[in-house]
Structures are given as structure tokens and as C-alpha cells.
Amino acid sequence: xxxxxxxQVAFKTRKGEVNAVRGVSFELARGERLGIVGESGSxxxxxxxxxxxxxxxxxxxxxxxxxxxxxDLRNASESAMKDLRGREISMIFQNPRAALNPIRKxxxxxxxxxxxxxxxxxxxARDKAxxxxxxxxxxxxxxxxxxxxxxxxxxxxxxxxxxxxxxCDPKLLIMDEPTTGLDITTQKAVMDLVDDLVKxxxxxxxxxxxxxxxxxxxxxxxxxxxxxxxxxxGDPKALFTxxxxxxxxxxxxxxxxxxxxxxxxxxxxxxxPELPHAVKDTPILEVKDLVKTYQGKSGPxxxxxxxxxxxxxxxxxxxxxxxxxxKSTTSSMLVRLLDPSSGQILYRGTDLATIPSDGFAxxxxxxxxxxxxxxxxxxLNPRHSARQSIAEPLxxxxxxxxxxxxxxxxxxxxxxxxxxxxxxxxxxQLSGGQKARVGIARAIAPDPDFLILxxxxxxxDVSIQAVVLNLLADLRATLGMSYLFVSHDLNVxxxxxxxxxxxxxxxxxxxxxxEDVMDAPSHPYTRALxxxxxxxxxx
Amino acid sequence: MxxxxxxxxxxxxxxxxxxAPVRAAAKPRAAMLGHVLYVLRENPVTGxxxxxxxxxxxxALFGVWLVPYDPLATDATATLQPPSxxxxxxxxxxxxxxxxxxxVATRLDLMISVAAVAMSFVIxxxxxxxxxxxxxxxxxxxxxxxxTIMAFPLFVLAMGIVAALGNTVAxxxxxxxxxxxxxxxxxxxxxxxxxxxxxxxxxxxxxGNSDARVLAFHIFPNALPPxxxxxxxxxxxxxLNAAGLSFIGLGVRPPTPEWGIMxxxxxxxxxxxEWWLALFPGLWLMLAVFTFNLMGDGLRDIVDPRxxx
Lengths: 539, 309
Prior knowledge:
The complex is a heterodimer of chains A (539) and B (309). Chain A has 539 residues and is an alpha/beta fold.
């Protein structure tokens, strides 16, 4: 049905022409579900944009053929493409909120597509739009028809995007990272829904993702891309059990999975024995009945409803939950950026909750409790070089100056595996993994003994995630720090943590040693979380 | 060289540099120069604007010693001469050399506009930054006061201030500064507000920075690129404003050479055919405003670290 031969796409940039896609060929049969897997910059999204002819300015198809049911997509006129988009080929984009027009009711946005392709008249558009919403299993579709995107949750928005994409019964559905940014249970619900619809309507689909596990669960065939080229393709199970290309093997290794140790994520030749970290009996942090209540417009909002837990010296504790469960609020209070409404935070016996967060920057305990932020790009000052970012906490909280300071910064760079020549670069000149290293170096600079890791790998590719997780494990062993690892991904938490706390709606619903919680969860919600995580086929 | 002579820019570039004794002094300076040259090469219009700016700054600094005639000296034998090799821009009704007066006037006009813009930059930045960072009552109070200023027709407000405070150069500066404060405050408020909860702001707090330091050294410098455009446009408006005040007889008084007065005095002679009296100071005024407007984009590219590669 779709046949691509030797597709090449190039972009004009300040440094000359960049070839984003370099000779990609694949075929897609009717009813087939194809997965395109690759890390950022592999050209997987650009390939699909080229098919739809929606490349950014400066991008063009340099060579190759793309034929869809006898139509030459490369040379088709723009009006022919307009007819094709939405009616024959539909696309679901990464960020559902950005894909919806914020000031139009979602029902009207579905009508737009229907009327554009003459699938509905003025009289019956409303009924057809509501039917489209019902098709994506939105409850009370008639009421949701009147909703604006901001009134809907992320998962609900993605369902609306699906409804728009499927409204005109396309034959091919292209999904570009459709569940990035969604909670893991929502991801499962959305993917199951789309998969059912695709199968029921006999459509073909292309799923573009960085997550090999997700692709293997929802695709019949997987294409692995790297640097604009296809390195391997085949059946998901075969790819997982017998990867042929070294890059595929690296990706398979780096995907967190049940039964794997943290070292097993690295390529075989880089695996060194894991350093042991000692967990002592003395508690470093005791949290007692911590409460945070915000004053909302419609009454008080209980973000955290009295949580208590203890972290021992040298221990790594995972704090798991979906968005809105209060895990970020809890970590903000522990790191003293936010004042709790009530409760105690005992750090080695000192109650930090009594020290207002406004003045904590000058407190002698400030260097002891540090944090690694979720988004390395957002958490580095764009005007500061890596060196300045790492030196900042040292300048404020230690007497180090001049040559001693420079030496310490370089030592930190070495500890975190950041090449010294990158120290004078600005954040926008560094890759995601390098920025993550700068963020970690900055956090460990003042020699903390308690580190909060707020989804430090959420924005990273899996192979970089593997490296960063191992770096964190090494640092814990060499520097003897305790971690609170905040994450939504149980598979990642299992790799790094001794103890796991599961939060839901501001309360702790389950806590215990990592193996117990993972292998024999007692709470149904924990079980649902574990079941929702895409599982790679066992090797 | 040219970009260091501009006061606000030089000020802000110096501040973060002092903050970082870690980095070797010579290296970033060379990188900065390379970056400036790159921006100028990429965009020839910026290069032209900087060249014209250099000319105006040169006129302001050294004009007094370079002009062929004393701008105040009258010559009863050579009144209302048209432009010639001797008097490039002709002479006025008292026989004063128009070219010398136009060049010498540059200093006063630039001084008024730079001083006024620097004042509104500093005051507006402080007000806007505090309002944007603190939010709440402070924000509401500040914003409403600024809205009140903006509710007046700005030139009329400036006239009122000069008329009330007295007819001096200092008061022109104050008046021009006051009417421009809201533009800076609003811009800074918006830029600070979106960065108040950014990751790097939280990280700066964890690094032991007090709120004041976070605001001054981490958030504010990131608001500079759009501010530079504002500064540059504003310099042009400030010159026009000062000249406008002089034109209607407020502020600078004759016989001091100043573009606005010269245009005002020359306007009387246009009907009788002595066009050069009003044309040349007017042309210089126009060129100055033009230069500052063109410079905005180039300045933004220079202070934005993301443009560096």
C-alpha cells in the first residue's frame, strides 16, 4: 500500500545542508502495523513528515520515491496532498495539547475535518462529531463536544486528537510519539484504544517511538533507524532475542526490563562490576506526617495528605506515582523550596520544616541537601557556561576561589564523565546527556549527603539513560550519598532503588523493599502501574 | 569597540563577568569579539547601523574640537549663506555656521537621550523585576501605577513635567525617563515572570543564592535580549522627544546648539527660501533615530548567548 524507496531528506542550516534522512526504503502492507524506532536525531519523525509533505521550511525531499496506493507523494500537487491528508493518511502528533487549537471547542475541531473532506454537511456535522468522540470511548460525548482543550486531561486530549485523525476513516494512521508526556496507565489506555480501532477498521499504522518495548507490544514489524538510515528491520520478537546490528543490540540492552541489573543496560564491553553501596541503620531523613494544602479557587487543594517515611544513610528510595500524585510537591518540600502546611522533616534530628524556605539558601544545611532536576535544558541557566553552572554552588557555599575552585570544577567534571573541553560551552551547545552530567555535577558540587533525583532521565534517550543511571549508581557508591529517586517509571526505579514508595492522590499507598513491591505488589494500583509498563518480549 | 561605548550594554555585560572569576579573562573576551564580528558580517545592515552609531558617538565626543567654526560665533557679514565649500551646511540668520552647530549639537542630544534611557532602564528594570518575581500585591500596585502613566498622552505628560519642574536640561531628562519607565517595567515583568519557576531559577536557589541574587544574576540577565531592542528603539524616541520639547520652546534654550531648536528656528526661513537652516539639523535627527532603530536587532543578537556557536 505504501512503498518508500531510497528516500533522502535534507535541511538547509547555517552550517550548510544537513542530510536528515539518507536513503530509507520500506514497504507497508494493508493492515500492517509498522514501528519505526530510533533515538532523537535518527530521522524517524522527518521520514513521516516527508511522507505527508509537511517538512519545516528549509527541508526538502532530495531523492527517492514515496508511493501511496499508486499516488506519487513526492510529486503530487499541494491540493492533491490536502485531499489526501486526513482522508487517506492521518497523523497523531507528540503533544496533544499543542495539536489542538486552544480557543476552539473540541467538537468544532472534529467538524472542521469532517466538512473539509465533505464527510458531513452543516446539518449532521454535530452528530457525526459526537459519534467520532464516542468511537474513541469518551464518556458523555455530547457534553465533551462543548469542551475546550484546557478543560480536558492530557489523556483525554490525546483521545480527541485520535478522534480527529480517525474521523474520516483514513487508511493509514501515522503516530509520532503519541504517548510521550502521558502517564503510564494513560499511555496503555490510549495505545490499547488506538490499536483496537486500527484492527477493527483494517487500517495500516506507523508508530514512531523511541521506546522499543512500546513498539514491540503494538507493532507487527519494527524498523530501527540511526542517523537517517535503517539499520535493521524485522519481527519484534526476533529483534529482541536476536538483534543483528550492534546498534539494535545496544538499544535492546539499554531498555529497562524485568530481571536486568543496572549494569546490564550498558553495552556488554562497557560493563564493569557494580560497586556495592552500604545502607546503614541510622536514618538520614525522617518525614513525619507531612501535609501540603494549597488555597485553590474552588476551596483547598490537598496536594500531600500526611506522608511519613524514613530514608537511611546510604539508602536509595524510589518515590513512584503518576502526575498529580503529590510526588513533586513532596520532593519540593524535602529540598526546602516549598514550605509544608504541617509535619516534620527531620534531617539527622534537625527539623527542617521549621526553617522557612525563603531563608534556607543561607542555612548551613543548604549544601547537604541538593537536587537533580527533571529537564536538564530548563534547569541550566542559558547564559552560563557549564563551568559557571558547576561553580555557582561552590562560590555561594564554599570558600573555594581561584585555582582551587577551578580544580574542584574539573574534578567534578571528571567524576561525572564530562570532558573538560566542554566546560566552556553554553547549554545550547551541549547534548542532552552532557547537560544531564552538568546538572549532576552541579548537584554534587557542595558535597551533599542527600540527593533528590527528580526524573533525571525522563528527557533522555534510552542509551543515554542507561549511562546516566550507571553514573548515578557509581556516584552513590563512591560518595556515599542517599538518594530519593522520583519517577513514574517503575522499571527504572527498580534498577536503582533499595526501597520503593508508591504515592497516589497525595497519600502513600504502598512502601517496602524494591523487590517485594515489584514482584508481589499488594495494592491494586501498584499492580495496575506494573501491568501498564510496556514489557519487552523476554530474551 | 562600538558596542562597549553604549552605556546600558556595557553595564550589563560587566556584571556577569564579575560573577565568574573562574573563567579565564582573556578567552571569553576574544570569543565575544569574534561573535560581534560574526553578527556584523551576517547582517550588513547592522554593520551600517554600528558605523553610523560610531560616527554619532565620535561627533559627540570630539565634535567640539573638530568643527571649523565656533558654533556660537556670529558673523554679521555672512548671514543666511547657502551651502558652499566654506560653509558646508550654509549659515543662519546670525551668520553662525550650521555645520558646526549640527555637529556640536550631537553631544547634547545624545547625552539627553542616553541619560534618559539609562534612567528608565534602571528604574523600569528594578520595578518590573520585583513585580514579576514577587507577584501579588506588589505586582498589582506597580502595574496600576505604570498603567496610570501610560494613560496620559506621553508627549503632553513630558511637556507638563518640564513646564512644572522648570526649563532645564536635567528636567528634560527626567521627563523623558518617566514617560519611558512603563515600557521597560512591563517588558521586564513579563520576562521575569515566565522564568520565576524555571528549573535554573530553582537550581540557583539550591546553590545557596538569596532571592535578590537569583533575581539579579540569574533571571534578569536572561531578560536582556528583548531589552536591548527596547533600549535601541527608545534611544531614537528619546532624541525625538527631547528635540520635540525644544522645538516647542521647552527645555534647551537658544543660543545653545540643539537639533530641535535649530529646526524650530530654521522653520521660519523655509518660506523665504533658506531651506538649509531646518533641513540639516532635521536630517541629522532623522539619521540618529534611524541608526538606533536599525541597531536593535544587532544588539539583541550580540547579547543572546544562543546566537553564539
